[in-house]
Amino acid sequence: MKMPRRGWSPRSSAGRRSSMGCWMVMSRILSLSRRMGRPGEDILRPGELYFQYYFCISFIQRLYMYNPLELRVLTSFLVLADELNFTRAARRLNMTQPPLSLQIKQLEAQIGAQLFERTKRSVRLTPAGQVLRAEAEKLFDIEHRARQMVTQANRGEDVGHLSIGLTAISAVELVPNILRRFSARVPGVLYSLREISSEAMLQALLRNELDVAILRPPVTDPRLQARRLMSEPYVLAVPVDHPLATQRKVHARDLDGQSLATLERRFGQYAHDLMMTWLAEHNVVPLRMHDAARHHAMMSMVAAGIAVSLVPASAAAQPIKGVVYRRLADRDVPALELWVAFHKEIGNPMTLPFVTQAVESAAGYKIGAECFGG
């Protein structure tokens, strides 16, 4: 981080540019000292602060309407943390020592923690001060990157690249919804989409071949982090002329003796095991078991009248000629979870903003009743 030089002032144009946006996340930064030592709570990651900056960029334009005291105080804190001398820090800030001392006292009062240990001969940071300094420095770096990216976007330039792994079902409706909203907020991103199995996505994340993956659980590798997007029940896909197609809802017992099409277990172990366990609990014995490596191939067998298939509910959003979908009436119908995963060592500043958008979009996602003939 580049610290303010001699002659720098928070009221100067350079000072305003380097301080821009701080007020939006000030309250979260100030809470860091209180969070130290609390079990189960993580310090804010820089990516999370970046997300706030990027999507609050419209508020930055109104920054000058607000009291600049908080901006000056945070900048003063960083300069003093760098100099560890009130006289030199005040000189760099083009102010006298008493106002600087007052600003630091106000900041400590607002935080509720001491940031500096002061003696007649020395000034040094407390543990709380060290935390605030580290996070504030990240904040200024993030703000600088955000400003650069917004400028590029306004010029119509590419602002970055995002490599996304996804399942075939998520590509039907959820992922387009996520991409539509994210692209509206962050224009100019270049996308690379890969439709592969959840197991393959995990390996691709570890090899840094993907920035983010929309997949089925589990995600157990400690190097990866995941957030839950949604949970959806199984529904039944049946040929349009199948006897079960005349029923609005079917039960597990209706599948006994039917030919069943499934994905190969190696291409979806979690979903396959969940489905087969449920069928076994209901003593369902399929007449024949057909398998396929991809969802579209499996649905081709259903459309051809060869078999029925249990699929995630969101698959019903994609009409396929010769196929209808019916809800399962059993109370214990298993629900498939969909997660979004990414590497903990985030190298792409687009990753966390996209993850947050994915969570937001999934929260409002619903399957229309018309998908089931209702």
From TrEMBL:
tRNA-binding in keyword set: no
InterPro entries assigned to the protein according to its UniProt record, in alphabetical order: LysR_HTH_N, LysR_subst-bd, WH-like_DNA-bd_sf, WH_DNA-bd_sf
Keyword set includes Transcription: yes
Keywords from the named record: DNA-binding, Transcription, Transcription regulation
Cellular component, GO annotation: protein-DNA complex
Record-level Gene Ontology MF annotations: DNA binding; DNA-binding transcription factor activity
Pfam families the record matches: HTH_1, LysR_substrate
Source superkingdom: Bacteria
Location of the HTH lysR-type domain: 69-126
Family: Belongs to the LysR transcriptional regulatory family.
The protein's name in its UniProt record: LysR family transcriptional regulator
